[in-house]
Amino acid sequence: MDPGFPLHPPGTIPCFRSKLEARMTNLLAFINDKRVRDWFYQIAVVLLLVGLTVFFVRNASENMLKAGIASGFGFLWRTSGIEVPFVLTGYTQADNILALFWVGVANTMLVTVIAIVLATLLGFVVGIARLSSIWLVSTLAGAYIEFVRNIPLLFFVLFWYFGVIAALPSPRQSLSVFGVAFLNNRGLTIPLPDGLENLRLAGGIILACILAYAVFAVWARKRQERTGRHAPTLRVGLLLLLALPLLALAWAVLATRWDVPALRGFNYRGGFVVIPEFVALLAALVTYTAGFIAEIVRGGIQSVSHGQTEAGAALGLRSGQVLRLVTIPQAMRVMIPPLTNQYLNVLKNSSFGAAIAYPDVVSLFMGSALNNTGQAIEIIAMTLAVYLVIGLAVSALMNWYNARIALVTR
Amino acid sequence: MSGRASSSSLSLWRERLFGTPFTGFVTVMLLLGIAWVAVPLLRWAVIDASWRGTTRADCAAGGACWVFIRARFGQFMYGLYPADQRWRVDLAGILLVLGVLAVVLAPQRLRLKLGIALLVVLPPLGIWLLAGGFGLRSIETREWGGLMLTLFISLYSSLIAIPLGILFALGRQSELRVIRLISVIFIEFWRGVPIIAVIFLASLLLPLIMPGGIDIDRLARAVIGLGFVIAAYMAEAVRGGLQALPKGQREAATALGLTYWKATGLIILPQALRISLPAMTNEFIALIKNTTLVLVVSILDLLGIAQASLADPNWVGMNMEAYAFSGAIYWLICFALSRWSRSLENRRRL
Fold first, then answer.
1. Among A122, A151, A114, A130, which Cα is nearest to A295's?
2. Of A55, A355, B138, B226, which alpha carbon lies 20 to 30 A from A181's?
3. Nearest CA among A352, A115, A288 for reference residue B334
4. In terms of domains, do A292 and A355 share one?
């Protein structure tokens, strides 16, 4: 079969080509080699990036020289002189700027952790309500989800701060929570323990209970795998994880002397004042994130097919056992990755507090400290590093957990 | 006929609300709860509200003072943009709507060309209309504000974010190791840091890393900062679409002799972008919501204007009205977009 054109273009047939032509062909082959091209592109991109970086860094150092700012982290040991209204670490104005940084990190972590716990609780309640067979319950849950998800978080932060908390009564007409904590427009005043010994002891007992339960659970599973005999995991769990810790906590609370806030003049004395910024930020984070977690919970539960529940029942499991052993483990597998994302979002979103001057790491360090020192690059790098390090750590932890519970395919 | 239909729907509702004694009990309790919240709310927002007038004194009824919103409507929409120049904003908006309509209604074969042409023409035209110069009175960005600014920042940030996001999504799937590494670092870095910090960062660092004498407008800084973060999220949205395509698509394109960019532009992206359009819309919704954060560098978008209007001594105590109005606008925009994205997704599934 004649293809209608010469198979070798003239001049490329090896035996007739000249030396120059041979070299050209080699060069063309070299240029057209995929590996060579790939390396060329990658090196070009890297060179471009390096060039840009050098350009920016040179500009930055020139501009900083003009502004009279010395680069480096030496400024961290200067006295900060910044007053912070909400301190967990014992920081005072006389401490250095590094201490201020840790105050910000601690405040960020505090609001993040509490918001995650509360948002998870509210999110699970709303998500399960969304699946309720009672029409009005699921409709209300759906309305809540659609309402919250389509409004900016900053709106909620401002709304809670300027709309709700500012509208609370003054300290004299505080809303009393069981007579020990008081909510007013200057924040939430909660009692403070005089000594920590009893609480520490209770914490130790709780930790020991958790450890004991873990050991028991491992032993029970091993025995079940060996002999097939069930251990009363649920009852032991209730005892070790709920009853004993509650008892220990109750004893510690009763045995400790509490500094209960009391009204003196125009404000409360004693106790610990949770500033209104914290309350507003927490409320906003919890109400907003719960809407997203609810959708994750709904999706997770719906992803477990009905056949799984029926199969569990057919094996003779009780409905509680089906939920515990069949539905939840499979739903968790679907829920863990998006939940992790939401938790990291809470961490990042806690920086919204900067808009109402909650002293988190962004507003304290990137705001106040940067204004005072002008060390923009160092401060920005440190602040971003906080989020990146925590984010990477949480991702790694969740990836490990996810790999553990992932479907094992053989 | 209609009687039977309504009786069957009545029985459906009876079944829904009062199917079992327990359901009925829960329904009644919840209805009481709803009434407890909704009745005062309705009285405040509608029955006792004042609608007409021009000053604070016209709000004597004790309910919501919508007069406040009427008096400030121009500010909520345009910020401090000079009143006699607001037609320029309107014109820009009309041009945008006409452009989108033209692309949607154009015949299939012209659609892409028209879209690209408009993408080249419209953004500079919009900036010229809003900022002025070349024959128009120039208006500084510090006078822009309100809903117009919210939409401006969202649209122009996504003009940065979408191309950049597509590039980095492709980079993350690339077989070139260095490119993949750079893309992963870019995406994970911007996704890992708070947007508020990025806006601070852009407003502080951009002037610092530019050669002396070049000043970047502070609104442009915010737009660039937001554009970079959203690009990382967009990249993840596009990656979903890229991963959903069977590997054979690229292999077939390569076997036909298409180069990488031709295969990407003609075969991969048209399919992948269609799949990731709902996810990208969700990122755009997130962008609209995050636009509010420019408040921290004192650029006043819709929420910022609402917040700033609370400080007016002539209108003390209008918090709830301002929040209700601005919140409702955000909700309407985001809800409409999310419904649209969901319908896209459902259409694809069928």
1. A130
2. A355
3. A288
4. yes
What is the pLDDT, as a whole number, of residue B1? 42
Query: Angle of helix B195-209 relative to helix B218-244, nearest 10 degrees?
Result: 120
Q: What is the pLDDT of residue A249?
A: 84
Where do we find the tokens 């978080």? Answer: A153
Residue A380: inside a domain, yes or no?
yes
Does A393 touch chain B if contact means CB atoms closer than 8 Å? Answer: no
Residue B251, CA distances (Å) to A165, A184, A372, B263, B267 in order: 60, 66, 58, 9, 11
Max distance between CA atoms of chain A, in angstroms, equals 108
Question: Predicted ipTM?
Answer: 0.89
Residues A391 and A310 reside in one and the same domain: yes
Distance CA B73, CA B79 (A): 9
**pLDDT recorded at residue A323:** 78
User: pTM (2 decimals)?
Assistant: 0.84
pLDDT band with cut points at 50, 70 and 90 for residue B319: confident
| Closest residue by Cα to residue A287 from A123, A165, A174 | A123
Single-letter code of the amino acid located at A393:
A
Q: Please state, as a whole number, how many other Cβ atoms lie within 10 Å of the Cβ of residue B20.
A: 11
Sequence-distant (6+) residues with CB within 8 A of A101 are A76, A361, A364, A365, A369, A382
- Residue A293: in which H helix or E strand, if any? helix A276-303
Place of tokens 């530019």: B210
Could you read off the pLDDT of B211-235 as tens digits, one per residue? 877 788 889 999 999 999 999 999 9
pLDDT digits (tens, 9 = 90+) for B325-336: 999 999 999 999
Q: Is A258 helix (H, G, I), strand (E, B) or coil?
A: strand
CB contact under 8 A, A354 and B296: yes
Cα A191 to chain centroid distance, Å, stands at: 28
Alpha-carbon span A64 to B109, nearest angstrom:
54
Residue whose pair of structure tokens reads 């729907």 in the numeric block? B9
Whether B290 and A152 lie within 8 Å, measured CB to CB: yes
**CATH code of the domain occupying B69-81+139-349:** 1.10.3720.10
Same domain for A31 and A116 = no
Dist CA A146 CA A189 (whole Å): 33
Q: Is B324 on the interface with A (CB under 8 A)?
A: no
Same domain, yes or no: A285 and A381 = yes
Domain containing A54 equals: 14-58
Which A-chain residues 350-389 have CB contacts (< 8 A) with chain B?
Answer: 350-352, 354-355, 362, 366-367, 370, 376-377, 380, 383-384, 387-388
Q: Where do we find the tokens 């012209």?
A: B110
Separation of alpha carbons A187 and A283, rounded Å: 13
Pairing of strands A192-193, A258-259: antiparallel
CATH number, position A118 = 1.10.3720.10
Of the candidates B222, B238, B231, the one whose C-alpha atom is nearest the C-alpha of residue B300 is: B222
Rounded to whole angstroms, the Cα distance separating A392 from B216 reads: 33
For strands A262-264 and A267-269, give the pairing: antiparallel
Please give the C-alpha separations between residue A57 and each of A54, A347, B7, in angstroms, as whole numbers.
Answer: 5, 30, 76
Q: Do A355 and B209 touch (CB under 8 A)?
A: no
CB pair distance less than 8 Å for A66 and B212: yes
Q: Where are the alpha helices (DSSP H) in B19-145?
A: 21-42, 66-78, 86-105, 108-131
Interface probe, candidates B289, B307, B310, B345, chain A, greatest A C-beta count within 10 A: B289
